[in-house]
Specification:
This protein is of the alpha+beta class. Helices cover 34% and strands 15% of the residues. The protein has 20 helices and 23 strands. The protein has an 8-stranded mixed β-sheet with strand order 9-8-7-10-15-13-16-14, sandwiched between helices. Strands 3-4-5-6 form a 4-stranded antiparallel β-sheet. β5 and β6 form a beta hairpin. α1 packs parallel to α11, α2 packs across α3 and α5 crosses α8. It is extended. 38% of the residues are buried.
């Protein structure tokens, strides 16, 4: 809860892109003074409806609560033209003068149903009590208003008036407007100041990138159309018109929505066409999935260690920047070009984001890594002849990442940037998945055949793999992060070499004069009787308290010797005495077994 509260406070500093997201300044003194508070559109809509309900219940003699004063005041200040329920075309009756037959005022709503035509508006009115009304319940009702000012209470009534069925395509323009009004993002100039001076010199203009949305078969459902509208609106708010790459069967449906559409074929074919088109324009290629709703960047310090507690604490203290896909792509490309050549052989051409919706765990590591998986939902490719393997229908982004690491010495993954995507929504690549996972297994087999040392199956998740690229002599990842933050490589120790420093490995052990009350330790010591130190550490196995077989280790030997449960033969006494002095200097104590 504390983490979420800090995230909300961080979001308060975001700059609204429309007057629909008004900001208020908290009064009083202390930590919150002067901090602007931004409200999401759904909160504004709820505050407006609750305020109308409160007024109606007061008229009936009932007392009900409403939203907070600040969010209610912010909702009332939103102009009706900046509300999603306002008609998209001029109407005969001004929405400010909407009235029911009984003369009740109708207030322009901040929401809009996906099937509502452009010349209709959506409003909220206060209701009269009926026989079924309960004290404190109800009081408002959502209605729709035609160009002539006629109020409708049901969708079927509008369809009967128009003489046709209403579909999601009738409300497409309204959904586009809804998404544009809902946007609230960090100022672009302020966001780019997070780049280093070297990276800012490499910052490209928006027209230097070819923005591609890879999609297919998403126009037949309300959810699919809403995702398309949101994706298109995110680009249009940033002043860019993306190109949609779809299969031949979906071309007309996407074209009818007014999108810029190109026939790209199936998934990997469409991805490769994006790359070819961008190369022909001499631009960097940006490939985006059709269901991304939000782009975020977290500004904050790396955690002190890799524990979940430290990572969560660092994540909670970070500032969240909500950005456009255009700003995100320019940011990544600037980092990508600035990183080229930081170490010999490292000239990355592929950049991407953290593959999960939350990057809290990533705060335990470096902000930029060079040999990790690049999620295909949002990628930036600069200049590379590499292409997607068209034999793969799924997991093509894993193979593409491996190709870039091998060819260009690495990739660039920004572990502070995330996208919110529906990885399991109907349409697109998800239609290729089968319940038995046969297609997944076929593509995993291709990965294992092409990159046997780089991929391994996930230990717990079925039909998933893990990319762990073999570590080379030169690691560009270390050059991209502060030297003080580098993690020391783990060195696998040889048990015998370690034991030789304290013991004579040829010395035999025998039982000491101190018995042990723990049964499995007593059995372990009986089994060790008469063996040499070398035999114990190389071949001796024993059963622990749960009956599981364990290998006898140097730590076991030290414990048994220090507790006097085992002793070394005369030739090993010198080493045992030296070991005792070493334990005394280190402050190590063995617990009394009694």
């Amino acid at each position: 809860a504390a983490m979420m509260q800090k995230k909300r406070l961080a979001a308060n500093a975001l700059k609204p892109t429309s007057s629909a997201a008004r900001v208020k300044t908290k009064g009083g003194s202390g930590k919150g003074r002067g901090r602007p508070e931004a409200f999401a559109r759904r909160n504004l809509r709820q505050a407006m409806v609750l305020r109308l309900r409160q007024q109606e219940q007061q008229r009936r003699g009932n007392k009900v609560s409403a939203s907070g004063k600040q969010v209610t005041a912010a909702a009332e200040e939103v102009p009706i033209k900046d509300r999603a329920g306002y008609p998209l075309v001029p109407t005969k009756v001004d929405p400010a003068n909407w009235r029911t037959k009984e003369g009740k005022p109708v207030f322009v709503d901040m929401a809009r149903v996906p099937w509502l035509p452009d010349d209709f508006g959506q409003g909220v009115k206060m209701t009269n009590p009926i026989s079924r009304s309960r004290d404190g319940a109800g009081g408002t009702y959502t209605v729709w208003v035609s160009s002539e000012g006629k109020v409708y209470y049901h969708r079927k009534s509008i369809e009967a008036e128009l003489g046709r069925m209403l579909t999601f395509r009738d409300g497409w323009n309204g959904q586009m407007r809804l998404q544009r009004l809902s946007g609230r993002q960090t100022d672009e100039k302020a966001f780019f100041r997070l780049l280093s001076p070297k990276e800012r010199k490499c910052l490209p203009k928006a027209d230097e990138l070819h923005f591609c949305v890879v999609s297919a078969r998403r126009t037949d459902t309300q959810e699919g159309l809403a995702d398309i509208a949101l994706t298109q609106a995110n680009f249009e708010m940033a002043g860019v018109t993306p190109t949609w790459y779809v299969d031949a069967g979906s071309f007309k449906a996407y074209k009818d929505l007014g999108l810029k559409v190109v026939v790209g074929g199936k998934l990997t074919e469409a991805r490769n066409k994006c790359l070819r088109d961008a190369a022909g324009m001499r631009k960097a290629c940006v490939q985006v999935s059709d269901d991304i709703s939000r782009y975020e960047y977290y500004e904050g310090e790396q955690a002190a260690d890799r524990s979940d507690e430290a990572a969560n604490e660092a994540f909670a203290a970070a500032t969240c920047h909500v950005i456009s896909p255009v700003s995100a792509a320019r940011f990544l490309l600037a980092k990508l070009r600035a990183a080229q050549g930081v170490t010999p052989g490292y000239f990355p051409q592929l950049a991407g984001v953290y593959p999960l919706g939350s990057c809290s765990r990533a705060f335990g590591g470096a902000a930029v890594t060079t040999r990790n998986f690049i999620l295909g939902d949002f990628i930036v490719i600069d200049k590379s002849p590499l292409r997607f393997d068209e034999d793969m229908k799924l997991k093509e982004d894993y193979d593409f990442t491996a190709q870039h690491i091998q060819r260009h010495g690495g990739v660039l993954r920004c572990n502070r940037m995330t996208v919110s995507a529906k990885h399991h929504a109907p349409g697109g690549a998800e239609t290729l998945r089968d319940k038995k996972g046969m297609e997944e297994q076929r593509n995993i087999a291709i990965l294992m055949r092409k990159w046997p040392r780089a991929f391994r199956k996930h230990p717990t998740r079925k039909n998933e793999v893990i990319l762990q690229w073999p570590r080379g002599d030169v690691d560009a990842e270390e050059a991209c992060q502060d030297a003080s933050r580098r993690e020391k490589p783990r060195v696998k120790k040889d048990r015998l070499k370690t034991a030789m420093l304290a013991f004579n490995i040829a010395a035999k052990v025998k039982l000491g004069d101190r018995p042990c009350s723990t049964p499995y330790i007593s059995k372990r010591r009986l089994g060790a009787k008469g063996k040499t130190v070398k035999e114990l550490l190389e071949t001796y196995m024993y059963q622990d308290a749960k009956g599981a077989k364990k290998k006898y280790t140097t730590a076991d030997l030290r414990y048994d010797l220090q507790a006097n449960g085992l002793v070394l033969s005369k030739e090993g006494a010198k080493q045992q005495e030296a070991l005792g002095r070493a334990f005394s200097r280190s402050g190590y104590e063995v617990a009394d077994e009694r």
